[in-house]
Amino acid sequence: MLIGEVARRSGVSARMLRHYxxxxxxxxxxxxxxxxxxxxxxxxxxxxxxxxxxxLGLSLREVGRALDDPGFEPSALVDxxxxxTRERIAAEEELLVRLRRIGAAEPGDWEDVLQVVALLQGLxxxxxGKRQRAALSSVGEVPVEALVEAALRETDTNVAGxxxxxxxxxxxxxxxxxxxxxxxxxxxxxxxxxRSIAEMPxxxxxxxxxxxxxxxxxxxxxxxxxxxxxxxxxxAVPTLVDMIVEEANDVDAADALSAxxxxxxxxxxxxxxxVGHLAHDSLGPSGRRRLAQALADIPGITSSRALAELxxxxxxxxxxxxxxxxxxxxxx
Length: 332
Prior knowledge:
This is Transcriptional regulator. This protein has 332 residues and is an all-alpha fold. Among the domains are: 3-72, Orthogonal Bundle (Multidrug-efflux Transporter Regulator, Chain: A, Domain 2); 237-332. Helix content is 70%, strand content 1%. The chain has 19 helices and 2 strands. The chain has a two-stranded antiparallel sheet with strand order 1-2. The longest helix is centred in the first third of the chain and has 31 residues, at 74-104. The termini are far apart. The model has no long low-confidence stretch (mean pLDDT 87).
């Protein structure tokens, strides 16, 4: 079969067939009387083998090795091809995400496109300073999805604060996207998600924080309780009380309870929650001292009675703390 017919039947151009011949991949075994290349059935099978291997992503050099080396083992090469394919797919997916984000920013001209690209690159920079500058410049310039992704992966404290600020300015939609981070398998990501939601204004963020009070991750519950306490949400009281008992951000928890206790309807509930732990035998002197300190700013008879009892505590430090707190309350 002559080269033109082979090209028509195989779908491989005559030019490529000549290239294969130059590389030694497929050499026609015969010549016509006029000197034209003539391919045998075996030659044509070889062409199809070459094309099949090329379809897997092998280079022509790798195809030659696979077909001509009797000791060639395909498993390692196939594994390498799979790895390269995964990397290529990841790169293409990253590009697709970037293109979608640029499109979502609705650029008006190429200058706008370049601005969005620069900010997206800044958010992904290895330099914390560049990431922070990009975060502070990104409000209204990049899609909120990009800010959320950056906030959930950020490890630098200053950059994380800038990203949370940017998200708080971003308006509706950011809270729901951040909420997906609450179910992340990595604890640090869950913590970043709830801290970001805590700085989001509005009822949507408050509702998500309420739900987070029942989260399986204790860190998420505690961040949510502190944020809700600052928003005046009574649902946070039990978790805040537990934080004082467990010495987990107890000072912040006490401040949140003090703010909530400004509502007379909540003051007695908070005092009852704190005093209820005093009856537990497992509560040591340090725990009783923390409770005495927390009761200082909780008005009402329940707090006063508990402090009077603590002023006679067998532990001197607890007794002195309670006595001091009672004296302060008497001067107010």
